[in-house]
Amino acid sequence: DAGITQSPRYKITETGRQVTLMCHQTWSHSYMFWYRQDLGHGLRLIYYSAAADITDKGEVPDGYVVSRSKTENFPLTLESATRSQTSVYFCASSGGSGESYNEQFFGPGTRLTVL
Amino acid sequence: QQPVQSPQAVILREGEDAVINCSSSKALYSVHWYRQKHGEAPVFLMILLKGGEQKGHDKISASFNEKKQQSSLYLTASQLSYSGTYFCGTESSPGYQKVTFGTGTKLQVIP
User: Residue A31's closest CA among A64, A55, A57?
Assistant: First the structure.
């Protein structure tokens, strides 16, 4: 499918487990981002990537790990999930051609619940 | 630090106008505006790259005052489809497209 996809769309896990959220885009965009969305906080940047093998921390990186070995994939791993990581996670990409260069395209989101 | 948006919420009747403000404590390179409908992903509306620039998108336009580190989003003759949460996002420097989003303004348009 063309565009940006996330999997799974819904996930329930337990405290202490490792969880990986997947993000895949088909546009070959250079930039990719992970955000979490919580009531009252809006969208907060967890990690971002400017290209394959180039990643950097955002505002709230603690407890998360990312990798980007291929341009199209940007997985987010919660090494040991905590209840405070219950949230909706959005992946986004940008870097298209022309006027859309700065536009971030968001995936559909993953709703994660940590029990 | 997240930019501050005001108001936090607003209810409009169809046809009314609204202004949403976004203010940053940092010098800004650009301001982005996104709209998110309930249960959906945010969708890009526009980006303002230059100080004083105004851009338009149908009946939705925005301005960017670089000196005051502020941006405003103007919604004129609101329609039911305008309902949603509006986020401004700011970049302090070019290069990585690293955007810091505000906490959002929830807009509800009623008949």
Answer: A55
Given this model, what pLDDT does residue A2 score?
A: 72
Q: Does B29 touch chain A (CB under 8 A)?
A: no
- Which chain A residues are closer than 8 Å to B44 by Cβ? 103-105
Query: Please, how many CA atoms are within 13 Å of residue A82, restricted to the half-sphere of its CB?
Result: 4
* A40-66: pLDDT as tens digits: 889 999 999 999 999 999 999 999 999
How far CA A67 is from CA of A49, A57, A62, B4, B107, in Å, comes to 9, 12, 15, 31, 37
Quote the minimal CA–CA distance from A68 to chain B in Å.
16
pLDDT in tens, B79-100: 999 999 999 999 988 877 889 9
- Residues in B closer than 8 angstroms to A107, CB to CB, are 41
Cβ pair A40:B101 closer than 8 A: no
Instruction: For A53-102, give the DSSP string.
Output: TEEEE-S--TTEEE--SSTTB--EEESS--GGG-EEEEEEEE--SGGGTT
